[in-house]
Amino acid sequence: MGTEPGPGAQAAYRLRFRTCWLWLVGVPDTCLSMGLELYLDLLSASCRAVYIFARKNNIPFDFQFVDLLKGHHHSKEYIKINPLKKVPSLKDGKFVLSESVAILFYLCRKYSTPSHWYPPDLHTRARVDEFMAWQHTAIQMPMSRILWIKMLIPMITGEEVPDEKVEQMLAEVKNSMQLFEEKFLQDKMFIAGDHISLADVVALVEMMQPMGGNYNVFLNSSKIAEWRMRVELAIGPSLFGEAHDRLMRLAEWDSSTLDPMVKERICELLQKFK
Amino acid sequence: MTTVSRTPSGHACVDPGEHLKPEFLKVNPLGKVPALRDGDFLLAESVAILLYLSRKYQTAPYWYPPDLQARARVDEYLAWQHTAIQLPATNVYLCKSLLPHFSGQPVDTVRLDRLLGKLKPALQHLDQEVLAAKPFLATEQVSLADLMAFTELMQPTAVGCDLFRDWPRLAAWRARVEAALGPELVQDAHKLVLQPRDPRDAQQDPRLAQELVHRLQERLS
Question: Are the C-beta atoms of residues A41 and A68 closer than 8 Å to each other?
């Protein structure tokens, strides 16, 4: 626990790419460190979206692991990359970019990925934009909170969050899932229509977050459960599973290894819920 | 000198509480403003609407620059601002203006200070990191990022919580954006939020007022 998922697979992927590149053009290995770097911890839903999208589209990158559980996002080295101390970050030569939605759009454009990911049609694109805007507060925030209150806070502080607060947050999530189904999914195969787009990837990885705390938001709606299967299939079950491995094994984490400063901050966070 | 893009526009006013009623929910089931209706096409979310308008009406490129990295900077701000700026700034506004208006109670200053505190790190970031490097939030020219930021920060400011007071670079940026947009347009857009509320308006529909107070209390707790 505490290592990036599939480190062997990651290293092999980079090695394969480097070997090909070297073989083709005889470029020294040192030049490759100027390639695309993605600073990630797959415990974070936003990181998973970026990871899945880059891997699915065979976009070559260096996986720079920023271990959130060890507080590496607060390290001096990482603050130089992103002073906001958040993951994911992208580094492309000298260009540094934060915010998963911005990173996804950047990758789409730079690597000319298939158009269904971010459809060019005015109205369809607007649907994707609409979801990408709405999800920050309506999906990502509440889903992440569930993981905190059900798993991380009790695990780290040894205390439970008051029932009333838990109920309030679960109700918020339920409401969001209902709105998602009624407004964004409706009777379509995917959010934008017949094909998977960035919106579906972002939606699903965020809805997976409570799974890390053994809370399943997909149980109440067969429509959403079916959409979930479709999205996983389109992404590829093996890639999807690999991306979620660290999250699903969160319960195994030895929280005594947590940096004391980070632990203190989390204890302060608990106070806000009381 | 930048000019504000002119698009054919017709706008419909939405009064407080109207966004909860069935007629409006047909336009936007999320029960929020703004919402756009273009023929049969309905669209919610201000960021999505701005992107739609800039594409459909092919507005001047500086709003949403075509250059890969410049565009990424605008996207980065537009994504970040939802939770860093829009949510906390709206909460400040609700606490300072809307809740007292509908409840008839004075402003809860303890709560207001707490809410202002949540906004502080973001304002500090903009003032001391972002604007230290360039004149506008994303690029060297005004963009959709500045437009969103300007209106979100003006909201609480217009009702007496001056968010620019402690941040000189942010204040200078505000003046630049106002100049770029045109002072008359800015004044016109903020007319409603700048004028003091008539306490009698709140009691026109006491049941609705109660409902709104309940929702606001929950949201701001």
Answer: yes
Residue B134 Cα, gap to closest chain A Cα (Å): 15
CB contact at 8 A, B153 and B113: no
Q: Is A224 helix (H, G, I), strand (E, B) or coil?
A: helix
Report the alpha-carbon distance of residue A71 to residue A87 in Å, rounded.
12
Gap from B52 CA to chain A (nearest CA, Å): 6
Q: What is the ipTM of this complex?
A: 0.91
Per-residue tens of pLDDT for chain B, all 221 residues:
233 444 445 566 667 677 777 777 776 777 778 899 999 999 999 999 999 999 999 999 999 999 999 999 999 999 999 999 999 999 999 999 999 999 999 999 999 999 999 999 999 999 999 999 999 999 999 999 999 999 999 999 999 999 999 999 999 999 999 999 999 999 999 998 888 888 888 888 888 889 889 989 988 98
User: B7 near B53, Cβ under 8 Å?
Assistant: yes
Contact B139, B115 (CB under 8 A): no
Residue A147 CA: distances (Å) to CA of A4, A152, A199, A215: 19, 6, 22, 8
A125 vs B contacts (CB less than 8 Å): 51, 55
Q: Is B79 on the interface with A (CB under 8 A)?
A: yes
Q: Report the amino acid identity of residue A170.
A: L
Cβ atoms of A176 and A203 closer than 8 Å? no
Residue A113 C-alpha, separation from nearest chain B C-alpha, in angstroms? 14
Are A133 and B45 in contact, with CB atoms under 8 Å apart?
A: yes
Q: Quote the tokens at residue A183.
A: 């407004």
A-B contacts (CB, under 8 Å): 75
Distances A229 to A182, A235, A240, B145 between C-alpha atoms, Å: 18, 10, 11, 36
Cβ of B75 within 8 Å of Cβ of A105? The answer is yes
Q: Do the Cβ atoms of B44 and A130 come within 8 Å? A: yes
DSSP H stretches of helix in chain B: 22-27, 46-56, 68-81, 87-93, 99-103, 109-125, 131-133, 144-158, 168-181, 183-194, 199-202, 206-220
Return the half-sphere exposure (C-beta side, CA atoms, 13 A cut-off) of residue B150.
26
How many CB atoms are located within 10 Å of the residue A58 CB? Answer: 10
